Amino acid sequence: MAQEKKIVHYSSSQKILLVGEGDFSFAICLAKAFGSASNMVATSLNSREELGVNYSNAMSNLKELEDRGCTVLHGVDVHTMSQHPDLIHRRFDCIIYNFPHAGYLRGFSSSESDDSQILAHKKLVKGYFMSARQMLSICGQIHVTHKTKPPFTEWRIVKLAEEAGLFLLEEKKFYSWDIQAMRTREDLGTAMQVLMLECLAPSNLFHMQCNRELIAISIPKPHCSL
């Protein structure tokens, strides 16, 4: 059995799903730390072609991830990812969304303080929570990396999580040097945190495909240590 390797909150023994990746630099950091990416699925909303246009190093990162055994999927919407044909039967120990952003409603002249912009972000995050909670293994966790200064605090992520049937396990500060070479369009000089969430109910829902009907089976959840 291969030796377990860790970086920050993550381990090579976990089944990890990354959503909303940009240039896939975060996925690369995990893969290099683990020495392999066979335990990872990394996804983006953008197509492979769009990534090549938007990010100068995306293609090289994707090739390295695939060479290391990572499953890479494109065109994955966080609202519907639990029903994606390549994900519907898979369960994950950790699902990660770094810096969720719904896009600018009025182009780059948009203000993050606009009520409509905040509402769009909240809809995105709640959609992620609702979909991700259906994809967790027993004791699985959902992670979000998020800015902690206004107006981003107006997203009220913990409340959104509670509305989706999740509860907050832990909050930790995010330091860019913890994940070396990670690139993001966000300002890494800003205070940020990683929120770790788990299902609120005393059971996790596992979905099984049976005669083309989706059946939800409730399985008692054992005590899970952090």
Give an account of the 3D structure.
GO terms for molecular function: rRNA (uridine-N3-)-methyltransferase activity. InterPro entries: BMT5-like. One of its GO terms (cellular component) is cytoplasm. It comes from Rubus argutus. The chain has 226 residues and is α/β, with parallel strands linked by helices. It has a single domain (6-103, 111-220), classed as Vaccinia Virus protein VP39 (Rossmann fold, 3-Layer(aba) Sandwich). It contains five helices and twelve strands. The protein has helices at 25-34, 48-54, 58-67, 115-132, 157-163; strands at residues 6-7, 10-11, 16-19, 40-44, 71-74, 92-98, 105-108, 136-147, 166-173, 192-199, 203-210, 213-220.
Features:
globular; disordered C terminus; 23% helix; BMT5-like; 25S rRNA (uridine-N(3))-methyltransferase BMT5-like domain-containing protein; two-stranded antiparallel ribbon; 5 helices; rRNA (uridine-N3-)-methyltransferase activity; Rossmann fold; 226 residues; alpha/beta
Summarize the structure.
Residues 17-178 form the 25S rRNA (uridine-N(3))-methyltransferase BMT5-like domain. The protein has 226 residues and is α/β, with parallel strands linked by helices.
